[in-house]
């Protein structure tokens, strides 16, 4: 079914170590970066690093109450590291369980900023103890890990295109992924009628398939956006899911223990501060200026799930994602019209 995507079978280039990457004298020149889920864990560590290197970072937080602690944490980091040319860090509110929030964020960002260099879709959730449906009608894991990040990305593509024009180099989209996406062995559960059915809900399975679906969508997006010089990649930072993040904010203690067992099985535990350099490698390393449609593990380009070899499946996943978003937005529009009568 479908054709093998040739780029997945090529020999990866030689990778750098973190020590080698740190020897580069990075100056991000106030290019604008959006990092979702920046209030803790991996998103916060990456926001600190990009700001330290003179980036203009817009970190998203789920509530206004999280803004001050996040701003304070970045400020303290800059005071400690004392960079020669520190960048700018600001926060904006974004709740990925709501398409309305995604649209409002994109509109507010466009009102404040004229372009965007890179979008890091970092925020995620997993291992919810029970099925939970969002206000848009979808299981929460899938909406937060796939539907809303994709919707956000499409809303920001015009600004990413302006970034290409203004900065004179490709813009970047980075999906934070996980080796756990290798866990699924077949494509059946990728269909919306399965992952959106409470009777079929299993926390581990739901999370793994949501990450696989995001990889498939990423690959198809890379194909479609390459002509605009917008490059799309995925990264397993092997550290974004430690217990000091909001990743499992709804999980009970036993679910957290299950998470750690699951992650250790896939060797998923690394310091977020160290793992932030893995994202920097994909976003700013000159060797990856033109890299697109790739799956990174730490500093290395690796092959994603064998299911990602199916080009037709990648197209189907993107089409299904767009259809889910379209139907939800259409229903919301209909409800608003009825309420105004």
TrEMBL record:
Keywords per UniProt: Oxidoreductase
A GO molecular-function annotation: oxidoreductase activity
Protein name, entry field: Short-chain dehydrogenase
Classification via PANTHER family: NAD(P)-BINDING ROSSMANN-FOLD SUPERFAMILY PROTEIN, RETINOL DEHYDROGENASE
UniProt similarity note: Belongs to the short-chain dehydrogenases/reductases (SDR) family.
């Amino acid at each position: 079914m479908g054709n093998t995507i040739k780029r997945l079978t090529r020999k990866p280039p030689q990778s750098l170590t973190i020590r080698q990457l740190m020897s580069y004298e990075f100056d991000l020149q106030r290019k604008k970066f959006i990092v979702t889920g920046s209030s803790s864990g991996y998103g916060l560590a990456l926001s600190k690093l990009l700001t330290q290197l003179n980036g203009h970072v817009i970190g998203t937080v789920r509530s206004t109450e999280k803004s001050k602690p996040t701003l304070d944490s970045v400020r303290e980091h800059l005071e400690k590291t004392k960079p020669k040319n520190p960048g700018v860090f600001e926060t904006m509110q974004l709740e990925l369980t709501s398409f309305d929030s995604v649209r409002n964020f994109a509109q507010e960002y466009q009102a404040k900023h004229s372009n965007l260099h890179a979008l890091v879709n970092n925020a995620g959730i997993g291992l919810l103890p029970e099925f939970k449906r969002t206000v848009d009608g979808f299981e929460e894991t899938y909406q937060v890990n796939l539907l809303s990040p994709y919707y956000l990305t499409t809303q920001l593509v015009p600004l990413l295109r302006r970034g290409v024009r203004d900065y004179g180099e490709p813009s970047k989209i980075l999906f934070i992924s996980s080796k756990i996406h290798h866990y699924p062995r077949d494509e059946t559960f990728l269909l919306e009628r399965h992952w959106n059915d409470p009777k079929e809900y299993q926390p581990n399975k739901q999370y793994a398939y949501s990450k696989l679906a995001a990889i498939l969508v990423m690959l198809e997006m890379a194909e479609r956006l390459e002509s605009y010089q917008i490059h799309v990649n995925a990264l397993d930072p092997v550290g974004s899911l430690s217990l000091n993040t909001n990743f499992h904010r709804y999980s009970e203690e036993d679910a957290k223990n299950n998470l750690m067992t699951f992650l250790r099985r896939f060797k998923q535990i690394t310091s977020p501060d160290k793992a932030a350099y893995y994202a920097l490698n994909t976003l700013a390393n000159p060797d990856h200026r033109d890299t697109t449609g790739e799956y990174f593990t730490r500093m290395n380009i690796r092959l994603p799930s064998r299911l990602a070899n199916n080009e037709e499946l990648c197209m189907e996943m993107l089409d299904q994602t767009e259809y889910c978003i379209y139907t939800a937005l259409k229903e919301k529009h209909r409800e608003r019209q009825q309420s105004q009568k």
